[in-house]
Design goal:
The chain is built from 8 helices and 5 strands; from the N terminus they run βαβαβααββαααα. Keywords: DNA integration, DNA invertase, DNA recombination, DNA-binding.
């Protein structure tokens, strides 16, 4: 069982010394680093740390936001570690998933994250319903208007193909097919 550290600073100008010192004091035998925004999911140091840890190891960060900026990403990462038998510890927030209390706190974070996602979906649905009640419809305006559709039908009735009608009306053939069959 090994303590493995991960440190991240957002810019090249920032100094990770505080994080590195805290991780060393926490007994990390190996420390991985990144100098990249937390919003980026493809961080080489994080990928290396996640590849390095094994069953029984503990991944340690100085602070939760060093691992990920969004709660869903953080939960996904820690859950993935747990399925591999790897613990997680955040020094600043005193979260340690190798203890029952730490697992409880992390599950509460997960529940709050799911609650947040559900609220966003609910507000989006309510907003769309309110807009529909006012007669507003989302999405792009139709490319093939009623007038163009009538002209297309007349052109096609004279023996031209849908492709030729679309060219004459300056509309895409896929959009014209959809309007004709919709």
């Amino acid at each position: 069982m090994a303590n493995v550290g991960y440190a991240r600073v957002s810019t090249v100008d920032q100094d990770p010394a505080l994080q590195l010192d805290a991780l060393a004091a926490a007994g990390c035998v190996k420390i991985f680093e990144d100098r990249a925004s937390g919003a980026r999911a493809d961080r080489a140091g994080l990928r290396s740390a996640l590849d390095y840890v094994r069953n029984g190891d503990v991944l340690i960060v100085w602070k939760l936001d060093r691992l990920g900026r969004s709660l869903p990403h953080l939960i996904e990462t820690v859950t993935s570690l747990a399925t591999r038998g790897v613990g997680f510890r955040s020094i600043t927030e005193a979260i340690d998933t190798t203890t029952p209390g730490g697992r409880l706190v992390f599950h509460l974070f997960g529940a709050l994250g799911q609650f947040e996602r559900d609220l966003i979906q609910e507000r989006t649905r309510a907003g769309l319903a309110a807009a529909a009640a006012r007669g507003r419809k989302g999405g792009r305006k139709p490319v093939v208007t009623g007038e163009k559709l009538e002209r297309a039908r007349a052109i096609i009735a004279k023996g031209l193909t849908v492709r030729e009608a679309a060219t004459r009306l300056k509309a895409g053939k896929t959009a014209l097919y959809a309007a004709l069959h919709g």
